[in-house]
């Protein structure tokens, strides 16, 4: 390992992103090379200076308000009841179980976000974009008998389009994308919230490998939005909304068997 | 029974439900360091959200939202500079993958004096040194400082992931060289 090579790797070493074998090789070089050791010290000090001394201005409140007004038309938190906060110990247990089941891991800054976390982010973004759009549906209908046939010819699979149930009202559908493949984007309303159901071919979708094709859906929370995921033969289903996680979970528990029954 | 996990924000620190503004501060910070003043920075951020939430916006599935928003912000900025230059190429700067850049490890920077100086640099000096860098170098340093990883930076810059490591290395070396200027 020559010095030029070592210098490019130093950044990863300082950030703790280096594989153990490579890290020990780098450290061996550092112990015998003054110039590279200096570089490592300078890297750390520069990080420290950037993190601690470079001012980190926050967006002015007026800008935040303006953007919230323009791009967040469905913001009705005030109307929603406050969410119960579960005890920390239960979160830790539930997290461990879900991490084991899904291979999800916390996508903290500075860590490689894993596929599951990226997929959840993408699904949440798809939902938010539907909310922010002034024309969220290509087919606007409250009947699943109109929405389902509309997808024919537009998708190379046949999504199950569940109709109204309880307070959940079908609003319409559109074609979108999940992990680079065409997906059905089906919108529902409940009280003053919106719920998005995304249906896509599950094969090869990173982060979806361990989602159950039978049994209870898996639930993930991102940025205050809940995503429930389940598989039905070769299709993946994701239900996304800012209604309470428990309520969304109940809908997912009801919809999953229906989508599995009807799939080929 | 299903398990619930909160992936990003610890309880009590979560942005409000449905909040597309989670990255607003980070975007604003980069905008401030690209733009010539706070008014231009605010315009950049407004336009970024307008483009990002436009119907049919070209979000690449599988990439992450934060990296994509930074990419949109940078494109908004570069488009604006291009317009000002009336079609002339914006960047008279050399190709960021080709320019040699200073090697901070050799020559004038070596020695405990640099380390001592780095311990003492103040915020204004870092800001000024960043301003003196070419846009691509400034951006890559700031994205790294915001905690984006190499894959995210590649998305934000629209460059191959394999070139991020060396770009970042050169940019940080240039920043240190610039900071060293204030030592004299």
Q: Count up the helices of chain B.
A: 8
Mean pLDDT of chain A: 79
SSE arrangement of chain B, N to C: HHHHHHHH
CATH superfamily grouping of the largest domain in chain A:
MucB/RseB, C-terminal domain
pLDDT below 50 for ≥5 consecutive residues: which ranges of chain A? 73-113
In the CATH hierarchy, the third-tier topology of the largest domain in chain A is known as Phosphorylase Kinase, domain 1
* Rg of chain B, Cα atoms, Å: 19 Å
User: What is the β-strand count of chain B?
Assistant: 0
Biggest beta sheet attributes of chain B: none
Description:
- The complex is a heterodimer of chains A (264) and B (184).
- Chain A has 264 residues and is an alpha+beta fold.
- In chain A, 44% of the residues lie in helices and 19% in strands.
- In chain A, strand 3 (181-190) and strand 4 form a beta hairpin.
- Chain A is elongated and about 75 Å long.
- Chain A starts with a helix and ends with a helix.
- Chain B is an all-alpha fold.
- Helices cover 55% and strands 0% of the residues of chain B.
Break the fold down into its secondary structure elements and pairings.
The complex is a heterodimer of chains A (264) and B (184).
Chain A: H1 3-15, H2 20-32, H3 34-52, H4 61-71, H5 88-102, H6 115-132, E1 139-140, H7 144-151, E2 169-178, E3 181-190, E4 193-201, E5 218-222, E6 225-232, E7 235-241, H8 245-262
Antiparallel strand pairs in A: 1-2, 2-3, 3-4, 4-7, 5-6, 6-7
Chain B: H1 24-34, H2 38-52, H3 65-84, H4 112-120, H5 123-132, H6 135-145, H7 150-157, H8 164-181
Helix pairs in contact in B: 1-2, 1-3, 2-3, 3-7, 5-8, 6-8
Describe what is shown at a glance.
Helices cover 44% and strands 19% of the residues of chain A. With 264 residues, chain A is α+β, with helices and mostly antiparallel strands.
Give short descriptive properties of this protein.
heterodimer; A: alpha+beta; Phosphorylase Kinase, domain 1; 3 domains; 19% strand; elongated; B: mainly alpha; 8 helices; 55% helix; globular; disordered N terminus
């Amino acid at each position: 390992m020559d010095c030029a090579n070592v210098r490019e790797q130093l950044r990863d070493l300082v950030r703790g992103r280096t594989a153990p074998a490579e890290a020990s090789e780098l450290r061996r070089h550092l112990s015998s090379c003054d110039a590279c050791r200096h570089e490592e010290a300078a890297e750390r000090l520069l990080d420290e200076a950037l993190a601690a001394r470079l001012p980190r201005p926050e967006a002015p409140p007026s800008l935040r308000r303006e953007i919230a007004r323009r791009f967040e038309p469905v913001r009705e938190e005030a109307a929603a009841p406050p969410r119960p906060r579960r005890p920390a110990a239960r979160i830790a247990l539930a997290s461990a179980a879900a991490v084991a089941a899904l291979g999800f891991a916390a996508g903290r800054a500075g860590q490689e976000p894993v596929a599951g976390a990226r997929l959840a982010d993408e699904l949440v973004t798809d939902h938010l974009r539907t909310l922010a759009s002034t024309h969220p549906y290509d087919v606007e209908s409250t009947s699943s008998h109109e929405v389902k046939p509309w997808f024919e010819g537009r998708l190379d699979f046949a999504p199950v389009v569940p109709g109204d149930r309880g307070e959940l009202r079908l609003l319409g559908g559109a074609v979108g994308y999940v992990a680079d493949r065409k997906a059905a984007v089906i919108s529902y309303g409940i009280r003053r919230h919106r719920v998005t159901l995304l249906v896509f071919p599950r094969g090869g979708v990173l982060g979806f490998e361990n989602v159950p094709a039978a049994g209870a859906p898996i639930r993930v929370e991102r940025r205050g939005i809940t995503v429930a995921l389940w598989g039905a033969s070769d299709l993946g289903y994701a239900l996304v909304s800012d209604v309470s996680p428990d309520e969304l979970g109940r809908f997912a528990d009801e919809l999953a068997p229906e989508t599995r029954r009807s799939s080929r | 029974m299903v398990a619930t996990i909160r992936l990003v924000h610890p309880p009590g620190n979560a942005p409000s439900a449905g909040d597309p503004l989670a990255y607003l501060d980070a975007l604003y910070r980069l905008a401030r360091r690209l733009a010539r003043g706070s008014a231009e920075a605010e315009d950049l951020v407004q336009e970024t959200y307008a483009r990002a939430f436009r119907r049919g916006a070209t979000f690449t599935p599988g990439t992450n939202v934060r990296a994509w928003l930074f990419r949109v912000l940078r494109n908004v900025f570069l488009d604006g500079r291009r317009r000002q230059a009336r079609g002339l190429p914006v960047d008279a700067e050399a190709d960021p993958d080709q320019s040699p850049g200073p090697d901070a490890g050799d020559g004038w920077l070596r020695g405990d004096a640099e380390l001592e100086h780095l311990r003492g640099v103040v915020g204004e000096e870092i800001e000024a040194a960043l301003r003196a860098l070419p846009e691509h170098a400034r951006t890559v340093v700031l994205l790294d400082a915001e905690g984006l990883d190499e894959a995210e930076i590649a998305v934000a810059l629209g460059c191959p992931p394999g070139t991020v490591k060396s770009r970042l290395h050169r940019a940080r070396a240039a920043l240190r060289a610039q900071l060293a200027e204030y030592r004299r």
